[in-house]
Please model this.
Amino acid sequence: MENNHRIPFGYFSTTFQFQTHSLKDLAKMSEPVTPEEYERNMKENIYCPSCSVPLLKIPTEDSITTSGMSAYFRHKQGYKEDVPCDLRTNTPAGKRYTNEESVRQAIEDGSLAIIGAWAESPPDLDHKSKEAQFHNAQIEDQEGEEVDIPIGRHDGQTFKVPSLVSSVYSLCSNFTENLTKYFFFPKSQFPVLLRDVLVDAEKADEDYFNRELLYYGKIKKFSRLNSRNVIRLENENFDEFNIFTYPDHDERRHIDHRSIGKILFAHGALKEHGDEPRIMVELWGQYSLLPEKYEKIVYELKK
Model:
């Protein structure tokens, strides 16, 4: 049985043909569509972003199921055995590759990225950026040191592969494609599907204390302190959920009081601080705004 809402969006295309075109072709030939955006004329033309198997909307016509759940996508039956998909079921956390060759192949074909560290400082200015809130910020992926990657589930073997010094901005700037991609995050023990490492800041509670994860949430308040800024995210369990950032980084990212209502992503450890848990952002690469065009995908993840 599939976990409802595990597939946050599907790719709609009238030209893509399953088992004729490749998965890499799908994103180029399609546009992302959430269950709420689904229209009747899209039937038979919605595909899974992770495996490209055709998707069905449940229920077909209504936006609410008979049990009161919001509509969702599920895979069309008949492909489960032949086409495995990490969005089909709740798979175990993380992924183990069988050998060194399989890891290097995954890196080469773009299904896996190794992030050895977050960028410490902003990159050179990029005046060609088209996104207003991302002006003067470019994708910071660059070559980093080699890191040890584990292979196998029980033998403890590892080997070294090249990594990237990167930024959460890189994850946000192409969010739909990255969502179904595996990433080896700094200090992690195994590669994890981005879909599975995301934590809704609104739902976070004491169980998340001291865990380094990728939190996301709507900005509720922005405050300036002497040496730090405080970005407060919406949360239903604490009085406050704060992200402490550096003013010069926020200025470069165009984050200020006008950013209230936008979606922020931050990777770090949630620390207990009374009724006001917080993440202390120390590196430029640890956080980023999400481009507005992807916000609909985030709201689907929240369901």
